[in-house]
TrEMBL record:
Domain of life: Bacteria
Gene3D superfamilies tied to this protein: MetI-like (1.10.3720.10)
Family, as annotated: Belongs to the binding-protein-dependent transport system permease family.
Domain ABC transmembrane type-1, first and last residues per copy: 53-241
GO CC terms, sorted: plasma membrane
Location relative to the cell: Cell membrane
Keyword Transport set for record: yes
Keyword Transmembrane (UniProt): yes
PANTHER family the record matches: ABC TRANSPORTER PERMEASE PROTEIN MJ0413-RELATED, ALKANE SULFONATE ABC TRANSPORTER-RELATED, MEMBRANE SUBUNIT
InterPro entries, per the entry: MetI-like, MetI-like_sf
UniProt keyword annotations, A-Z: Cell membrane, Membrane, Transmembrane, Transmembrane helix, Transport
Protein's UniProt name: Binding-protein-dependent transport systems inner membrane component
Transmembrane segments: 65-85, 106-135, 171-190
Length: 256
């Protein structure tokens, strides 16, 4: 996998510059140390009890992946069906368009009624949120297939099952992968958000606990840990995307 070093190094340099400005601001008291701790204080909070962060991140990532799997299954299935069957699209389209704009966090009271206050609540809300970009991108991927592909397939007498496997799935895969990558990020963000609203376990609950206790260094440390976790999840999915789409042309194989 060949990657250009200059853009990546430029990103790291910009991040280092922001940290340097942050450190200079706290050292010169331009930034109030009581509200914004120094990078050193945040690093100390991160390394003071590593198991605390590891356990919280593990719980958040585990529930994120469960929610992502559920949302991906729903989004891919619904997107493929909507793209292939116009009758289904016309029948259920208004209901879907009514549900899609709903803020996922606003569904917490309803979800509590059906699934309770346990881990299922976080998974349900995150799965609902991440299913929509997967559905939209998969649907658009199917709708964007060149009609000539269908005409050619029917001309050579291909079966409907083979048509679905060899034409529809293959042609819709790039757009579906984009939806999956966006959905994974949304699932993680919503999972952390629900943990903050209903703090039980996870990195979001740890951030809320730190904020309520006035431990600002720990609060910023949890935010940094969440950001790094999200970055690693996104990069891991990009590698998966590269492996699956490297034969689809340079516009897809270079997206790492």
């Amino acid at each position: 996998m060949r990657m250009s070093l200059s853009p990546r190094c430029g990103g790291y340099a910009f991040a280092a510059m922001l940290i340097l400005v942050w450190w200079a601001g706290t050292a010169s008291n331009v930034l109030a140390r009581g509200q914004i701790p120094s990078p050193g204080d945040v690093l100390l909070a991160l390394t003071d009890d590593p198991r605390l962060f590891i356990n919280a991140i593990f719980k958040t990532v585990r529930q994120t992946m469960i929610a992502f799997a559920i949302g991906a299954a729903a989004g891919l299935t619904l997107g493929l069906c909507h793209g292939v069957f116009p009758t289904l699209r016309n029948t259920t389209g208004p209901c879907i368009e009514g549900l899609r704009p709903l803020p996922s966090i606003a569904l917490i009271p309803i979800a509590i009624v059906f699934v309770g206050m346990g881990d299922s609540l976080n998974v349900t809300i995150a799965a609902f949120a991440c299913a929509w970009p997967i559905f939209i991108n998969t649907h658009d991927g199917v709708k964007g297939i060149n009609p000539l592909l269908f005409d050619t397939a029917f001309t050579i007498g291909i079966t409907r099952r083979r048509l679905f496997q060899s034409v529809i799935l293959q042609a819709a895969l790039p757009m579906a992968m984009t939806g999956l990558r966006i959905g994974l990020g949304i699932a993680f963000a919503v999972e952390v958000s629900v943990e903050m609203v209903i703090p039980k376990t996870g990195i979001g609950a740890l951030a809320t606990t730190a904020a309520l206790s006035g431990h600002n260094a720990l609060l910023y440390a949890t935010i940094a840990a969440a950001a790094m976790t999200g970055l690693m999840l996104n990069q891991a999915f990009r590698w998966t995307e590269f492996a699956l789409l490297r034969n689809y042309g340079p516009q897809w194989s270079k997206r790492t």
